[in-house]
Amino acid sequence: MKHIRIVALAVLALTAARSRGDEESPDPLAGWTFHNGREFPGATGQIVWNPREGRGSPGCVEVRYSFAKGGNYVAAMTRPPEGSDPRRVRLWLHKPADNRITFRASDSAGQTFQKSIHYEYPGWQQIEVDLSTWVHSWGGPADGRVRWPITAFGVLIENDGRARTGQYFIDDIEWHAEPPGGPAPDGPRRSTYMATDFRDESWRMQGPSGCAFEAGTWTYDLPADGTASIASAFSLLGSPQRMRLRVESDGSGNELHLALHSHFQTFETSVGTLDGTGERAFEVELGKLAGWRHYGGENDGIARLPLRVGRISLTRRGGVGRGRIRLLGMDVETEYPPERRVVLIPDGRIAGHEARFEVVVRNLAADPVAGTLLWEVRDPVGRLAERRVELTLPGGARRVRHEFRFPLAGRRFVEGAFRFLWDGGISPEASVTLVREPDTVESSPDSSPIGVGIYLYRSQGMPNRIEHMRRLCSLAQRAGVKWTREEFQWHVTQPQPDRFEWSFYDDLVRVAGEHNIRVYGLLAYWSGWTRPYTREGVHDYARWAAQVVRRYKDRIRHWEVWNEPNIFFWSGPKELYTEALKEAYAAIKSEDPQAQVLGCSTAGIDTSFIRKVIEGGAPFDILTIHPYRAGLDENAFIDELRSVSRLVEDRPVWITEMGWSSHIGGFTEREQAGYVARTYLSALASGVVGSVSWYDFRDDGDDPFYNEDRFGLIRHDFRPKAGYMALATIGRLLARHKAAGTVDVGDDLLGFRFAAPDQDVVALLSPEVDAAVALTCRPAGVRAFDAMGEPLAIDASGRFVGALPKGWPIYLVGPSGLRCAREPMPVRVVVDPSFVRPGQTVTFRITAAAPWSLVRWQWPAGWPVATDTGPGTWVVSVPATEPQGVVPVIAEFRAGEPAGTDAAPCLRVPTRVTVQPSLLRT
Fold first, then answer.
1. pLDDT tops 70 at residue 19
2. Domains of the chain by start residue, with CATH
3. pTM of the model
4. What share of the chain is helix, strand, coil (3-state, %, to 5)?
């Protein structure tokens, strides 16, 4: 390219290198190769030199692509300059705004590494890629460790956005050596904090009788080679690099071991031996957990954040069998980017007629920081109240708690949002949603497609399991849930070849039936007495399946054969799953010819796996899929569903898992609620999906940072999130309706029509941006509801003017033949520019037709008040510390009131500004 540079940061010198892609080279594309992701067939494209485009001056690499015939990605690959050994790459990209970019590299051992970045900035964007840290790896040693030097580097564009064809541009690559003097001034920081003092109640004793743990004191009684453990489950903050475990030792000679969790994978290592008395400190390297034993999940040895403390074990190795030690503290040295110095953990609950929000604020740095805690409470459209509190946060991640209260005044939904502003930075926003449960129980028809993974089977072993299951089913029934996917676990129901245990599942099926919820049974996993992943094991599995169906065939008519066999949940030969499906199908039908067998159950929509199952001759009545994804393009998703329906010859398709987690660092609870509505609406609008089940109904735990703990629609303690009400609204409005086509409401919005014999429902949605819309609906008698089921104002003539919050639908309910036509908005807000860098200014321009007038602006927390520069024009400066993200700005209007009045607005028009840093790091 024009400028390929090797940068020796230690001496801050730039050395120009005439190399591949230099515009003065005979061939500016020498060394570049194009890949079309042939493992996912369909993508096409090429690399060309574009002499007109470029960052700063003309000339750059252009990568053309097309996903019109499928495919997952295309890639432009190159190599570092000869003789270099870079640790980081800086490059400029210009891409379609809604497609994810993935970086790929290979090392000297033949291992391939990959990680992704997603941003929407429409112009040239500089990105720095750390070549030492990756998310995925395969090939070579397949252990996630880079063996220098890097031999290849590539830029991939993913088939995950609306831009199915197009091009992206690459310019000004810099290859950077690792600075020997330490991290760059704006690079990651390190500090140490106490993760636990072992005095809280989260630690549980696991071990032989005679062992106990209380407030840090561990009393043990171990047989030879015996082990006792204490277990907990909490995430370590930041990117942990080192741990120091402080113990008051009894000199027993016994060994301490530590287990950490990383997604579904567990890592274990020896900490040390209690070979002396008094206070001891054991240090353990964390980072990539190199050399630790690992098992479970992907089992690839790659440590994925967050790392979570699992258990500490004490093993007798010829030492004293009885004794007592004290655990004094666990100190963790962690790494974090400067902008993530302050961590906010929000929570809240409804008490009577009041919303009570709480936030825990933690400063990861060693030194204190003074600043302002910003709090807002919002309804679905905009801000209802705000407050600022000046705080000085101590160092070392010590917890500071603050509580805020807000009167609900009859509202069903409110959101509390928090940020912390200090000199030189502002934290990412953290928020929590509070909702009231529906007042009445929904009566769902048998034809309802509304399901969810209630997972009553997880109550096994609870002393109050019946009460627990009834509480879950009652909440699900109130949301209109008709189906639940329940694991019938082989090892539980048949622990020995000649012994069956049915009592727990008898209770489960009975409780679900009491709440008008139908069970479809997932026939799952191996029992300890069989031979997994063998023909003999498959025969045993089919015989067991027949026994389960025989017992429950009068109450359960749908049976799913295994879970996600296309990935690690089936770790044997994949073709053996086809045989398992054949035998299980025959066994189920032999017991109940009317039963419906659900097959494939793939992670994602794995058409390759599904095709092989079909070609292998395995029968099934319903195809089940788990189409998880990073985002949701409704039209593309509907096309995928219809395509896979054709692949299975128009058999019904069920989505038995799909969801988005609301953990910190993932999606907010508001965003999760939007995805709930969008998932059910688009799946049902496809016309080929017979049932949809969100994963899952209740949070698996209460760790705010771990994604698997936060997929639920209700919290671990049963408090509902906004997603619960999003599902309840769909359950109430659409349980008896069928897809009836789309509604033309313009290219920027989506409209789906659903019909019942006596009623139509139109769902209107703005998937990616906050919007406002004006509609006229006919015939008379139309009602409007928001995503939480709250009624919206619509006049007697059927005219609706209101906001469409990003990803949150509105529902228009009326007689059969309902028609909705879009009209021009009576007010308009123009933002220029809509994509900005921190520190730049933004201009807002308003035009309003009589009798509408502006009441007020809702500027983001921490932003200065805008300057009124003339009729209908305001200019505001984006704070220099504003982090990357989409920032909402609301203009409030009222009809018939002069501008500036304090009267309550009747129309909120949302806009947004997307803030993008000059340099993105990954």
1. no
2. 5-176 (2.60.120.430), 189-336 (2.60.120.260), 338-435 (2.60.40.10), 459-731 (3.20.20.80), 741-823 (2.60.40.1180), 827-921 (2.60.40.10)
3. 0.87
4. 15, 45, 45
